[in-house]
Amino acid sequence: MKEKVILAYSGGLDTTVLIPWLKETYDYDIIAVCIDVGQGKETDGLEQKALKTGASKFYLLDVTEEFLTQYAWPTLKAGAVYESKYLLGTSIARPIIGKCLVDIAKKEGAVAICHGATGKGNDQVRFELAIKALAPELKIIAPWRIWDIQSREDEIKYLEDRGIEVPMKKDDSYSRDKNLWHLSHEGLELEDPALEPNFDKLLQMSVTPEKAPDKDTYVEIEFEKGVPVAIDGKKMSAKDLLAEANKLAGENGIGIADIVENRLVGMKSRGVYETPGGTLLYQAHEYLEHLCLDRDTYQYKLNVANEFAKLVYNGLWFSPLRKALSAFVDETQKTVTGKVKLKLYKGNIIYAGATSEYSLYCESLASFTTGDLYNHKDAEGFINLFGLPLKVGAMLLGDKING
User: Fold this and answer.
1) Catalytic positions, please?
2) How far, in Å, are 70, 249, 306, 319 from residue 279 at the CA level?
3) Calpha distance 289→306 (Å, rounded)
4) Full-model pTM
5) Adjacency order of strands within the sheet including 217-224
6) Nearest-5° angle of CA 236, CA 240, CA 244?
């Protein structure tokens, strides 16, 4: 009996090549596994395609709801953004895909898992760290690190030489990754940072701000303990809520990010990311935190958000530190409950008010009108003590420290 290998299968160019390549190179019994994290119609017809090109078995697992509740929402609650712009759409999907691949490998008694991530990218790290964390005994096959194929053009020729249908047009060979949270685009003109993206050809989840409606759209988002639960008063599942957020934000030109980022493997890369609903939810969540978190907690959480983003980007979702940071974040979110109203207009998200039973905003304190809780005279003593080190330094050292 042949040994079994689990192939992370998307039906795209790389994984279409991988099935015949695995058979020719290893003579494995190939089990193709597609993990649905919200790719939509991309999963249509994949079973027939995988079996036709040489797979012995096919799995399609829809884990979209789990992807959002167990991976996207914790990242949202953390406020994690990589290098100030990237909302981690691909990064948060890889751990659950890796987990599902391991589950199928154990079920099928497979000896190896194969992925199509390149030797230049981050995804090879994310997939393999997830597998190592959950099933260190499994062999990992990464063809891009060992085969003779050097380019997407080589892949296309490989399929054409074997009479296998190429799953893309040669003039539209962007490298894309899609899930319900986002859609990434790399390649072609994006490889030159001096060139403007061809947005009319690229965008699928959004429109450019120029093509957005000439009128504003109001939306209200409700959170419970940092988790989005309703839009415009209608409570929904995570999947339905994000789909609605994507629609509202996408049609208003929101969530398009053109990024030159620092990859984990040491190089810079450029990509365009569409994250319409995610961008909307991040902004709403941040507004609510400003209302509900005390100063020290909020400011410390900014540091945690940055560390959380680096861990997730670097494939360390299953690390002890990421889990510990999530425990901290969950503690901070106990009071992040309320409603945020936003105005969407041509790529802009404009704050239009928020309410929460846990609001720390006190109108009598903040008002210019003197109230019972604040005595203006108290500020004098506070300033004297707070500025004491500056005053003492100036008295003792004088011009020596002032140039």
Assistant:
1) 14, 94, 123, 175
2) 18, 8, 17, 26
3) 16
4) 0.94
5) 234-235, 227-231, 217-224, 338-345, 348-355
6) 105
Cα–Cα distance between 85 and 93 in angstroms, integer?
18
4-52 residue pLDDT tens: 999 999 999 999 999 999 999 998 999 999 999 999 999 999 999 999 9
DSSP 238-274: HHHHHHHHHHHHHTTT--EEEEEEE-TTS-EEEEEEE
Where in the chain are the domains?
A: 4-173, 182-293+336-355, 370-400
Q: In terms of residues, how long is the chain? A: 403
Q: Which CATH number fits domain 4-173: 3.20.20.80, 3.40.50.620, 3.40.50.10230, 3.40.50.300?
A: 3.40.50.620
Number of H helices and E strands in the chain, helices first, is 15, 14
Q: Which tokens belong to 77?
A: 């609650």
Quick: pLDDT tens for 50-93: 999 999 999 999 999 999 999 999 999 999 999 999 999 999 99
Residue 68 DSSP label: I
